[in-house]
Request: fold
Amino acid sequence: MAFLQRNTTILSGNGADPLTAQKPSGTIEGDMMVAWICGGSNTRRNITPPSGWSVIYNQSSTDLGGSGQQFGYYKVATASEPSSYDFAFSGTDPLLGAKAILTSYYDTNGTGTWTVSNLGGGKLQRPAGSITSLPITGAGLYITAFFSDDDDNPTTDNSPVPEIARSVANGGTFITYGGDYTATNHTITQNFDNRDDLYANNVIFAHQVSGDYVSKIRVGSAYKNILDGWVAVDSTSNGLPDVWKKITAGHISVENKAGNDVWNEIFKI
Reply:
């Protein structure tokens, strides 16, 4: 089992208009989508997230001081996601360095149930230069975001997970990391080449399937005699399941001896 990045969207704006983030390309049902939105402002700001998004951290609930705003939201992708999402700031005055980074992640073990733990509470470091993330424990998909309310260059990467994206310009710097994480009681120190207010957030998502490759099937639903769910499949003929396949309307996609996916009928509808 591993947690990997599907894709990332990066954008910037003036903060007076909604930041419209395109859904990361390739995102499918069951992916975990995480959005970080930030900007520099001496005025308290709020964000109205798109429908269905839950908060990781919203600065309107905890005042760190300084002149930076940093927000985090997450959502598990459904089968009918829109092509983009609007994150609207309160107020109409420009927001220096307004940026958004939206990343989707998936579990190589297949689609299961995402559980969320260790939501970041936000941290401010001043005088700046370097900042240490909030302490984290447990294993899962670990994500952290650092923000400087100046155009500082991130100069050190000692994260236990890969860098996902960075944006340096327009009065603000954003850098994010995310991926499979197994260590415990760890922190990350991110250095910057300038001195201004620095902010950090982090979160762990644990994607837990009931055992490794245990089939999860729901019978019935709104339709008679239809199986709905995921089933573990042996694609290498070694007697052990190693991939997940989706059951749809009485059929399941499996791999034949030639290595191609084919539809096999489970029963007649």
Observations:
- The longest strand covers residues 96-107.
